[in-house]
């Protein structure tokens, strides 16, 4: 029987049934595979609370997610809830629910369409989308097939710039060492980049929670008055500063459009070369271990340490990269990573970084707020003014332009 409909009146019994059968005190995340088509006849005719499945249509995932969330908030009021479903509906973002795009096959065209699908989905206001990186259905010779290895690397690169970063495949050993040293080396580079950007990404999640922001953004959200971006389906913003153009075909070149609305320029993330906006870059080289990334002038990117999981190392040392050409502003958000009501109960802190381009000044605000486990020792902020071959790529910048030892008080850095 499709429990999506039963939840309308049986939310509490359903929760305790699941708690007894699959749920343990330390489980906070759920992976929902149920879908309406599993029970097509009952879905259409079952009548619960004078409402049939035919009338409810696609709202079933909203009720499933809401049922678990409501009861978990009672059962574990301080823990954060997360569930991943292959279906979604407006309002589901309030439940801690994310969506993945379903059981997809592995091909270049599917990768292309996944990029467009991710942007279309998030244009609806639902901010947490994911996919089966590499495809759910994979070729039988996936571990030795050179074509598939290229696809897997390119897909991993795209996935690193989606809100939920996850790999999955049917009857597959998806650990990347199974695909040989080249695949392992290339995906590790992008994996390290994703995890080094955790301070930036976690702050974007804060903006999403309080401002209705979306992390992965169709260009039209940031450039609504630039007609050239309206129909671009394979290029997007990751937060306010990073423009991403994944390579989805078998060649190592691509074309990128760099928009301009306020005179901004764009910095190549890998080389530090600056480009003017409102132009196409045709047939630019994109080595297999890279993805096309451009950072907007005025951008402030905050890099953490190299880690293999989110809480492996505290953020004692941060690299702050400044992309000159315009004024910039970014808020670093931090909390203990555990408390569900961190924001509501003001158990978090923020630090504002503001770049004034004319005066070449970076202002770092006083830290506002506090939370249990907050870093209270002196922190090191390595400030880098990005230039050609300086402050580029994934690794730490060996010679930062300024080093700030931050105690929580306001600091002004002059260049």
UniProtKB/TrEMBL annotation:
Molecular function terms, GO-annotated: hydrolase activity, hydrolyzing O-glycosyl compounds
Annotated InterPro entries: DUF5110, GH, Glyco_hydro_31_C, Glyco_hydro_31_TIM, Glyco_hydro_b, Glycosyl_Hydrolase_31
GO biological process terms on file: carbohydrate metabolic process
Record carries keyword RNA-binding: no
SUPFAM superfamilies: (Trans)glycosidases, Glycosyl hydrolase domain
Alphabetical keyword list: Glycosidase, Hydrolase
Organism domain of life: Eukaryota
Domain DUF5110: 318-386
The protein, known as: Alpha-glucosidase
Domain spans labelled Glycosyl hydrolase family 31 C-terminal: 212-301
Pfam family, one: DUF5110
Coiled-coil ranges (or none): none
Keyword Kinase: no
Domain Glycoside hydrolase family 31 TIM barrel stretches: 45-204
Protein family per UniProt: Belongs to the glycosyl hydrolase 31 family.
């Amino acid at each position: 029987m499709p429990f999506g409909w039963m939840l309308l009146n049986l939310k509490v019994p359903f929760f305790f049934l699941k708690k007894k059968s699959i749920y343990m005190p330390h489980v906070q995340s759920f992976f929902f595979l149920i879908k309406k088509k599993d029970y097509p006849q009952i879905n259409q005719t079952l009548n619960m609370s004078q409402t049939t499945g035919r009338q409810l249509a696609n709202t079933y995932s909203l009720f499933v997610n809401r049922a678990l969330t409501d009861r978990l908030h009672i059962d574990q009021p301080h823990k954060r809830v997360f569930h991943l479903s292959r279906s979604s509906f407006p309002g589901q973002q309030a439940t801690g629910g994310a969506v993945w795009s379903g059981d997809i096959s592995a091909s270049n065209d599917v990768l292309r369409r996944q990029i467009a699908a991710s942007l279309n989905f998030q244009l609806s206001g639902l901010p947490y989308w994911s996919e089966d990186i590499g495809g759910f259905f994979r070729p039988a010779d996936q571990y030795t097939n050179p074509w598939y290895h290229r696809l897997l690397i390119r897909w991993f690169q795209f996935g690193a710039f989606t809100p939920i970063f996850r790999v999955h495949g049917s009857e597959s050993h998806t650990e990347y060492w199974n695909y040989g040293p080249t695949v392992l080396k290339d995906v590790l580079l992008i994996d390290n980049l994703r995890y080094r950007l955790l301070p930036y990404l976690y702050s974007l999640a804060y903006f999403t929670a309080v401002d209705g922001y979306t992390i992965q953004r169709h260009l039209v959200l940031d450039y609504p008055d630039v007609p050239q971006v309206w129909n671009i389906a394979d290029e997007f913003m990751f937060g306010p500063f990073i423009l991403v153009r994944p390579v989805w075909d078998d060649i190592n070149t691509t074309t990128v459009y760099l928009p301009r609305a306020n005179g901004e320029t764009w910095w190549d993330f890998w080389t530090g070369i600056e480009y003017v906006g409102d132009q196409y870059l045709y047939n630019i080289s994109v080595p297999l271990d890279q993805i096309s990334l451009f950072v907007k002038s005025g951008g402030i990117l905050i890099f953490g340490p190299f880690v293999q999981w989110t809480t492996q190392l505290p953020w004692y040392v941060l690299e702050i990269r400044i992309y000159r050409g315009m004024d910039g502003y970014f808020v670093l958000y931090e909390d203990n990573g555990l408390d569900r009501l961190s924001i509501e109960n003001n158990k978090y802190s923020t630090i504002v970084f503001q770049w004034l381009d004319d005066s070449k000044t970076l202002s770092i605000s006083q830290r506002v707020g506090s939370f249990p486990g907050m870093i209270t020792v002196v922190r090191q902020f390595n400030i880098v003014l990005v230039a050609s071959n300086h402050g580029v790529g994934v690794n730490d910048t060996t010679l930062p332009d300024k080093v700030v030892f931050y105690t929580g008080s306001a600091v002004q850095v002059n260049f």
